């Protein structure tokens, strides 16, 4: 069986690990030495149904190679493949968005945010890649002392408890703060008031944790939504503690029941929504900022 026929017969619209030269998409073969020497690599397919695929068609738009000191993004644009090198130490934060229909990885650096979209039916290669980044983007700094952390145990979310049990099994991860859902009732001409009627928007809950080396948050893909709208998506955000220079709360001028929580990094910031009663003091204390 030739390489083109093999690629066609093994194609599925999901992320796949690259184990040997036969797994490298034809359009990326000129980078085969780089890919095969990497610690790990995976390929991301075009969003095309299997029944519409024909032998010889370009099936993959991105190959991600995790080398010793950097990630190399090989991305196909038109008929060319462009290589982007991202040293691990330049990654200031990672976000992993999971949803029923589409997944995302966001790599935030001082220069830009790199976004990789993929079909979430197979996440093991993605999770392995994120693990490699998290292992390599940390600097040699003393971790936070978890024993002194007064852990907030008030988590009224079975959804988050299940995610934490799956993602951090066997790891020492401590909860810092939990933001419960908040109703966002709009009253024209009046101040906004908390409420949770069926058709009023809500701020969805979120949770903030640490393993001593990273600040980790878990929130919903849609931070606000109507109560009767289904939302199965979630977002992990991983920030090395040594990258966090400050924590800031700012009001949302359009909604008195929302605040912007910003984690100030070396060259950028990560912003999330929290409710009117949320305080950044505990986060500042734990993070020593």
- Please tell me the overall pLDDT: 88
Low-confidence stretches: 187-193
Derived structural class:
alpha+beta
Radius of gyration: 21 Å
Q: What is the chain-wise order of helices and strands?
A: HEHEEEEEEEHHEEEEEEEEEEH
DSSP helix fraction: 10-25%
Largest sheet: number of strands, sense, barrel closure: 7 strands, antiparallel
Estimated share of beta-strand residues: 35-45%
Distance between the termini: 60 Å
What's the helix count? 5
Shape: globular
Strand order within the widest beta sheet = 8-7-6-15-13-12-9
**How many strand segments?**
18
Q: What secondary-structure arrangement, pairings included, does this model have?
A:
Blueprint: H1 3-10, E1 16-17, H2 32-37, E2 40-45, E3 60-66, E4 70-77, E5 80-87, E6 93-98, E7 103-108, E8 113-118, H3 124-136, H4 158-167, E9 174-179, E10 182-183, E11 202-203, E12 206-210, E13 214-220, E14 224-225, E15 234-240, E16 246-252, E17 255-264, E18 269-274, H5 281-287
Antiparallel strand pairs: 1-2, 2-3, 3-4, 4-5, 6-7, 6-15, 7-8, 9-12, 10-11, 11-14, 12-13, 13-15, 16-17, 17-18
How would you describe this structure to a colleague?
- This protein has 289 residues and is of the alpha+beta class.
- It contains five helices and 18 strands.
Keywords:
five-stranded antiparallel β-sheet; 289 residues; alpha+beta
Summarize the structure.
The protein is α+β, with helices and mostly antiparallel strands.
